[in-house]
Amino acid sequence: MIFDLTGNMMRIWPNEYYTDLTDALGLFALIGQQTGDLLKRLIPIDFEQPDVKNAIYAVVRCHGIWVQLLNPKASLPGILLACERSHCQNLVDGLFRHGRHLGLKPSGLGSFEEWLNNYALD
Predict the structure, then answer these.
(1) Which of 6, 60, 99, 120 has the smallest set of CB atoms within 10 Å of its CB?
(2) 27-to-49, 87, 88 alpha-carbon distances in Å
(3) Total number of domains in the chain
(4) Is 38 within the bounds of a domain?
């Protein structure tokens, strides 16, 4: 799977064996200093891995949902999550149930783009 966060969304695939799954996935970003604390409540692995300098990718189960995680190791902590579109509402419910006391609140695409441009693509 390819996550190109800065490229042309109208990608021309190199051959017929590629499939664009953009509309089949729910894409989320958890951004902020409490990201690691929230993830520790949701997934069974240590996804921060401070000794690793490069981006980290993993596929884990979270409340029965297969979730893909990407930790770009941004200067402001943030994790990108992707799950099948049919499970998005369940994932969002789980995130807010476990993140409410940490100050988790919904934000828009502008906040994501600011994080991506100012912290994640350093």
Answers:
(1) 6
(2) 22, 11, 8
(3) 1
(4) yes
Handedness of CA 63, 90, 4, 16 (dihedral sign): positive
**What is the structure's pLDDT at 2?**
58
62 located within any domain? yes
Of 96, 16, 107, nearest to 116 (Cα)? 107
Instruction: Give the number of residues written for the chain.
Output: 122
Q: What is the mean pLDDT of each run of 10 residues along the chain (122 residues)?
A: 60 73 80 88 80 88 88 91 89 87 88 87 66
Phi–psi pair at 61, nearest 5 degrees: -100, 135
**What is the distance between the alpha carbons of residues 117 and 109, in angstroms, rounded to a whole number?**
12
> Residue 77's domain is classified under what CATH number?
3.30.1360.120
Q: Is 50 helix (H, G, I), strand (E, B) or coil?
A: coil
Per-residue pLDDT at 62? 83
Whether residue 18 lies inside any domain: the answer is: no
pTM metric for this prediction:
0.76
